[in-house]
Design brief:
Layout: H1 2-15, H2 19-29, H3 35-46, H4 54-67, E1 71-75, H5 81-89, E2 94-99, H6 102-114, E3 121-125, H7 128-131, E4 139-144, H8 151-161, E5 162-171, H9 191-206, E6 210-215, E7 221-226
Helix pairs in contact: 4-5
């Protein structure tokens, strides 16, 4: 009996998914991305500029194809990679993207002018907390990948900009797993961000009319969909 238990334990361990091997397999069968996006990814990595991870890239591609949004708002342009990805896979979308970090602003301008899909992207350099108050109309897709400490402050305004049945996708919500830790275990310098991210996720999961799922994808992703009740209808 003990031997059977040991063999079964070994079998289960052998069948467990190794995340590195799993990602390698998924990449091996993936349809791929346009060469220009792969070139931009390679240049960004050479400059040590972070861009969205491969699993996030694939999922964002899927969401674009599924929803085919017409108006997209992105908070946190980086060097423009994710905006160009969304523009490519949502060919009718008009995209507004905001970036405040000066070293990346010129890179965004360069990349949006260099690539064909950049013609449908409106780039706004500056503080998103201020600029979103100047935006008109509704957006049916919002991609949030910026300074995490601002999320709770901007959440009400972003939900107000979201159209009925629109979706907010928030990237990197698990903060390399630190979000799961006690406030007292997190290094003191990170405690404010830790607290605000928890506040933000609680708001998304407890606001009437907002349906949210948190996915273990990349560094964690929150998908939030707005329903009629969110506007009090």
């Amino acid at each position: 009996m003990e031997e059977e238990f040991r063999i079964e334990s070994i079998r289960k361990e052998a069948l467990s998914l190794d995340p590195v091997r799993l990602e390698s397999y998924i990449e091996s069968i993936d349809e791929g991305f346009p060469e220009e996006l792969r070139e931009l990814e390679a240049r960004s990595l050479e400059l040590n500029v972070p861009i969205i991870r491969r699993p996030t890239q694939r999922f964002l591609r899927f969401l674009m194809r599924m929803k085919q949004p017409k108006r997209i708002l992105e908070i946190g342009s980086g060097v423009g990679f994710s905006a160009l990805l969304m523009a490519h896979f949502a060919p009718e979308a008009l995209i507004t993207t905001i970036e405040s970090y000066p070293p990346r602003i010129e890179k965004c301008r360069e990349h949006f002018s260099q690539y064909r899909d950049g013609s449908r992207i409106t780039f706004l350099p500056g503080d998103a907390g201020e600029l979103i108050d100047e935006l008109d109309g509704k957006f049916d897709f919002i991609f949030l990948d910026a300074a995490k400490g601002q999320y709770p402050v901007m959440s009400d305004r972003l939900l107000g900009l979201l159209s009925e049945d629109g979706m907010i996708v928030t990237d990197n919500v698990l903060q390399e797993g630190s979000l799961l830790e006690s406030h007292y275990i997190v290094p003191r310098r990170d405690r404010t961000i830790h607290k605000r991210m928890r506040e933000y996720l609680y708001k998304l999961t407890h606001t009437p009319g907002i349906s949210t799922e948190i996915l273990d994808l990349g560094d964690g992703m929150a998908l939030s969909v707005k329903t009629r009740q969110a506007d009090g209808k």
